[in-house]
Amino acid sequence: MKALLRHLFFLLLLISLSRSSAAIRIITTIPDLADFTREIGGKLVEVESLATGVEDTHAVPVKPSHAAKLNRADLVIALGLDMEHSFLPALLEASHNPRLQPGKPGYLETSAGLTPLEVPRTLTKSEGEQHAQGNPHYNLDPVLGRVIVNNIADRLSQNWPAHAAAFRAGRDAYLAKLDAKIAELEKLAAPLRGTKFISYHNHWPYFTARYGLVYAGTIELRPGVEPTPKHIVDLVARMKAEQIKVVVREPQFSEKTPSRVVEQAGAKLVKLAIMVGGVPEAKTYLDLIDYNVRTLVKAVQP
Amino acid sequence: MKRSKLVGLTSALAVSALSLAAQEANPVELRKQLEELLRVQRQQAEQIESLRKQIEVLKGQPAYPGAKSVTLEPKVEELQSRVEALTEASKKTFAGQFNPAFGFVGETVFGYRSTGSDKNGGARPGGFDANLRSGELTLQAAIDPFAKGYLVVNGSANTQGEATLGIEEAALITTSLPGNLTVRAGRFFADFGRLSFRHDHELPFVNRPLVLDSFIGGESRADGLELNWLLPTRHYLNLTAGVGTQLGGDAVASPGTYRAANELTFWTHLSSFWELTPNLTLEGGISGLLNDRTESRGGAIVQADGSTLTERRRRVLGLDLTLRYQPLDAAAYRGVEWGTELLFNHGDYDFDPDGSLDPANPTGTAGFPALSGDEFRGYSRTMGLYSYVATKLNRDWTAGFLFDWMQNLPGVAAAPYARPDTFRYSPYLTWKPSETQMLRLQYSFTDERRASGRADDHAVYLQWTYVLGSHTHGFRDR
Asked: B268-278 burial by CB neighbour count: b if 16+ within 10 A, else e?
């Protein structure tokens, strides 16, 4: 019996050690980045996302299986700006993969080159869970999606120069599709200009800036802090006074409080996704941005 | 204004130059030169005016087609002032740029226990109590490209209210060893079992389980070295092996003038993980501890009749299991965690019926207690476990129940006591309004079955924990 178990163990070890393919193994933190990377890398890359899309981006469960995946990866891609602070540093530490540590070629934050919004002037916990480097949800602005795509393509080309031409071709082909979608949504989103809305969490500053919406506040008291009854009373009063008719709920947050708010304020509740996979309709990044704009436009139309 | 001055100055210089040249040239040539100069001057003035207009136009132009027109000058000035402020700020704080990240965790436990410490074996008095259980200062930073380090200094109040301060952890961890290896060296909470490496404030309930307090000695604090290997397999397998002088929160260095290799403490932990479904996971581990010379770990145990027991050797085997249900789309609101750890303890003891072996009260020479001839060595095999289930009620609230069972170590449970087991039942409720503050209310009933010489105890605790400054989410905190 012991001999059988020993042989079985070594067999499993050998199977595990043997690489299933010669593709570049890439782990991304969110599915948006995985989608971009697949589009750029095609068959040259094998991509997996840690988050499936339905999670709270600030609280993706830390699973040891993720550490094992990172251990075998050649590159990890993150949004950065502390978006993944609750799970990625812990997983990278547990991955025992020196190539993937921050600052190394195997670690990429796609925020390089963009100007973050809402960089706090003062860092204090009295303002809730602040992001010292600015709001990290820039993936929700499709124009900044271009920045992400370029950053990924550049890093792939730097790390694997033999495939640079293929990565450039993949990038250009994808950017053409993305640009067409951006132009389409720019026209579609015209009715959104000037629309005031609130959301559960402050996910939307980049989206708001892109489509000319007016961000009027959050259901959360502060980022990461659930609302107090007084906050809800004040919020409803302000919504009535300022004619705020749209409340956005991100899928990972409870529907209970937003439903109460819209009922009391006479507003509409809209579910928008914060990353690919957040709603069934958002299977790709192009789907995601399309879904968000169309859903919101539908909500503001009389 | 400046441009008109420039034009005037240029004209004056030109006229002066002409007047000087006129002293040596004929009038016709001079007139031609004068006309040429005036033409150039007109062209320059026109060019300057044209450029001025272009600048004015550019100042009001949008950044890209379709964007709103903006006035750039005030924005440029604002940006310039911000850059200067940042540059100045970085100069002022440069000396502290490499300072580690600081954090502080404070924890106060308010409590009521129905029995005194003589009956419940606790470190705090019975009745009403307010206890600054710990104030932990943490520092961490990279040491160099090859290692990082951290320090945990713990301050607390003893039963007299006096402050005590000690280094709980101070260790370096390698960051770039090949072969999926890391080494940790120094003082640290060793990777043994499921919860023994957690600080008190990180536990999912108020008090450390009985079996960990008794068999491990509280936290798994060790002075030594630990090697960790993540096996290069698709399936998660992690192996730790460590060696040190002691392991356990109440550990003290072995006495004597020489320590042989086999008198060191050795420990190991193998853990694995199974993702049964995306929402349901299982973690399991097996731990082992070999401590061939425990000497005075925890001191001699004095029994009611005055006899003493001194632990000489211990071997501990542990099995741990954690089942988690975390619905990915609502992990902040819902979830259930069931955690269990079972420990087996095999200890060798020196039994001394008349208590003369008590090292705390030596009567012999050179620090060795006197032997009076009645001593004998025996062993004790005991086991115990804790098991808890915690369920999230919503984003802030968690309810849980902890069950403790332990066969007492000889000091508490030796003959003639008939029922050496201790049971404890602890329902609790946790409120975490933010990531950096937590309140926990817990009731504990300790069933000593009276046969152990202790009394049943009813206790209520309110634990209030807060975090200041930097905090991280470690892999072991999951």
From this structure: bbbbbbeeeee
Do A30 and A160 sit in the same domain of this protein? yes
Contact yes or no for B230 and A61 at CB 8 A: no
Residues of chain B with Cβ-Cβ distance to A96 below 8 Å are: 180-182, 228-230
Task: Write the pLDDT tens digit of every residue in B116-144.
Answer: 887 777 778 889 999 888 899 999 999 99
Please check the confidence at residue A200 and state whether its pLDDT lies above 70.
Answer: yes
Place of tokens 């979608």: A181
SS3 category, B410: helix
CA distance A180 to A177: 5
A197 and A82 within one domain: no
Chain B positions touching A90 (Cβ under 8 A) are 472-475, 477-478
- Kindly indicate the confidence band of residue B325, based on its pLDDT and cuts at 50, 70 and 90: very high
Question: Closest-CA residue in chain B for A58?
Answer: B332
Chain B residues contacting A via beta carbons under 8 Å: 175-177, 180-182, 228-236, 238, 271-273, 275, 278, 281, 283, 326, 328-333, 394-396, 433-436, 472-475, 477-478
**Per-residue pLDDT, B418:** 40
Q: Which of A294, A10, A42 is nearest to A163 (CA)?
A: A42
If asked whether residues A271 and A146 sit together in one domain, one would say no
- What's the pLDDT at A2? 62
Q: Alpha-carbon distance A246 to A241, whole Å?
A: 14
Give the number of domains in chain A: 2
The class of domain B103-477 in CATH terms is: mainly beta
Contact B275 A59 (CB under 8 A): no
CB contact under 8 A, B436 and A64: no
* Best mean pLDDT range from A244-258, B131-145, B272-286: B272-286
In this structure, are A149 and A223 located in the same domain? no
Residues A175 and A258 in one domain: no
